[in-house]
Specification:
The chain is mainly α and about 350 residues long. It is built from 15 helices and no strands. Keywords: Coiled coil.
């Protein structure tokens, strides 16, 4: 990045931090591209004036007008129309003192313009009344000549030479006017191209800001995805630990059921000893003593398999009531059905508060 670009960006950023509007920033950007310094731009950007006033100040600065000229054109108390008219007068060659008198007259812009046109017409009339320069030169030349009939041919030849010289000078003036007009047309074309370049640069700057916003949003999204993946990983690990504990407790209940079936004479004794494994499941889950005995009895009598016991444990953890648990255990349904019923019961409990 070149130093000019860095300087321009610093100028724009400085005024952006002050909270100036978008259209003022665009004017500042154009003036910085044109080559105005930060101090020159501050002459209008640091003051409390409307945008139209700023544009007139900007044009004066671009034309490199003196401070005294700028003070007259944008004097306090003038309307925008009066300022524009004063600028137009000065650009057309009206002396600044005359511009100052017109603006201080207190007239509106339309009256100011008529005063200017009247004075211009008066000046043109004065110029028209004067003898053309070439006529004056001819008269002076003839006066210097001692005109007589004897050397008339020589005199007329000399007069013809003077007229031809003046005519050549007039053609040179026409060439100069033509070249000047062509140059002005090229200046207009160059100004239009510069405006197009400035607009393209502004659009590129806007696109760059949009890309930066999208980049930041994409970064936040990736961070959110990583956070969700980490939570999912922790939850998966926790579920695995729950399944392992359930398998262990299910094994204890399987041992209890197996001992119950060993011998009809020893059923009462085995039930008393091995029911402690099933009781431990409900003890860990903080089930009340009376409810715990009822649920243990239901588990033993229900002959539930390992997967069903896992679902019963899940139901207790999810806060299902004793009556809901009894219905699930007595229903003698598969573990898959248990899971669905437990989820429905949990939802119902949450809706009931």
């Amino acid at each position: 990045m070149g130093s000019d670009t860095r300087d321009k960006n610093m100028i724009i950023q400085g005024f952006r931090n002050r909270g100036v509007s978008k259209e003022v920033l665009e004017l500042i950007s154009d003036d910085a591209d044109y080559g105005l310094t930060r101090e020159q731009i501050a002459r209008y950007a640091d003051k409390n004036m409307d945008f139209a006033h700023m544009k007139i100040c900007s044009k004066c600065l671009r034309n490199n007008y003196d401070d005294e000229v700028i003070k007259v054109i944008v004097a306090d108390g003038l309307s925008i129309s009066q300022m524009e008219m004063a600028l137009e007068f000065y650009e057309k060659g009206v002396p600044i003192e005359a511009v100052k008198k017109i603006t201080q007259s207190g007239e509106k812009a339309v009256t100011m313009k008529k005063l200017y046109e009247d004075s211009l017409a008066e000046g043109n009339k004065f110029e028209h009344d004067r003898e053309p320069e070439y006529v004056t030169k001819i008269i002076k030349y003839l006066e210097r000549m001692n005109v007589n009939l004897s050397n008339a041919d020589k005199r007329f030849t000399e007069v013809e030479d003077v007229l031809r010289t003046l005519l050549d000078n007039n053609e040179g003036q026409q060439d100069f006017d033509r070249i000047l007009k062509e140059n002005q047309e090229k200046d207009v074309l160059l100004s239009e191209k510069q405006d197009e370049i400035n607009k393209a640069y502004s659009q590129a700057t806007e696109n760059s800001r949009e890309r930066e916003v999208l980049r930041k949003e994409n970064k936040k999204l990736r961070e959110k995805i990583s956070e969700l993946e980490e939570k999912y990983s922790k939850k998966k690990k926790s579920d695995t630990e729950v399944i392992e504990v359930s398998k262990k407790e299910s094994s204890e209940v399987d041992n209890l059921n197996r001992h119950i079936r060993i011998d009809g004479n020893n059923i009462e004794r085995k039930e008393t000893v091995n029911s402690r494994g099933a009781i431990s499941i409900f003890t860990k889950l903080a089930i009340k003593t009376k409810s715990r005995r009822n649920l243990v009895k239901l588990v033993i009598e229900g002959e539930l398999d390992k997967n069903q016991l896992i679902q019963i444990k899940s139901a207790i953890e999810k806060g299902l009531t004793e009556s809901q648990l009894e219905e699930i255990i007595n229903g003698r349904i598969s573990a898959e059905r248990m899971k669905e019923i437990i989820e429905i019961a949990e939802l119902e409990n949450s809706m009931n508060g």
